[in-house]
Amino acid sequence: TDQVAIVSGASRGIGRAIALLLALQGAKVVAVARNEGELEELTQKTRGLCIVADISIEEDAQYVITETLNHFGRLDILICNAGVGSFNELENFEAAEWDRIFDTNVKGTFLLCKSAVPHFKAQKRGHIVGITSDVAKRTFAHGTAYGASKFAQDAVLASLRKEVRPHGVKVSTIYPGLVDTYFNDTTPGSAEAEKTHLRPADVAQAVRYVLEAPAHVVVDELMLHPLTQEW
Ligand code: NJP
């Protein structure tokens, strides 16, 4: 297809796999992250556009949408994937770290959607895909900030789904379990346990599935786990 897709957090991990799969399928991919190096390397593979932006900053998020429209003249798909997390007992959690997690996961999703939705509504078509987490539906020790941010991100997307549905715009939410990425300063493949985790490409296939639904179908939610993960 000649569809234009923005992928936030595209430089590594899940976002990179989504960007590569969408490009392989013929989409024009706009790859977004804060650091330029990995983004440029990816963009050589996707032959798309890369935009260096911090999605937690309103001007940056607006720029991602306007620059995409300036460059390609259209926007069909927004993948809200960028996210961060760290884990600690509540009393040892720094308030600044709480803010970093909420600013990225919740506010970042809000800001990208805020800029894209008027365009999607005007064209009466568009698809927002949010990568949240299975921890948007469960709680766990040491996960106060990250878990709460994923519950909140999930609620943003679920509310938005109801707002935009009458305008022909879809919102799909994907809930992955453990995925072997660079998340929380880890290195893929470094730990024995990670060998059974989902691969970023597994999550990319889930994104592909929700995007390929017929025009009259919206996949609201899709959850996937490694077979070995008890949750
Ligand atoms: O993480 P990682 P994942 N503005 O660290 C970018 C969720 N999830 O792929 O900005 C713009 O490999 C960052 O680039 P840079 C998770 O919560 C994961 O695992 O240059 N971009 C990089 O490209 C998250 O929502 C697991 O540092 C920003 C990317 O985001 C999503 O999956 C399980 C940014 C992060 O790549 C992708 O995470 C689960 C900003 N402010 C859900 N901040 C899991 N890994 O187990 C970061 O259930 N980025």
TrEMBL record:
InterPro entries: NAD(P)-bd_dom_sf, SDR_fam. GO terms for molecular function: oxidoreductase activity. Its EC number is 1.-.-.-. Keywords: Oxidoreductase. It is an enzyme of class 1 (oxidoreductase). It comes from the Bacteria. Belongs to the short-chain dehydrogenases/reductases (SDR) family. This is SDR family oxidoreductase.
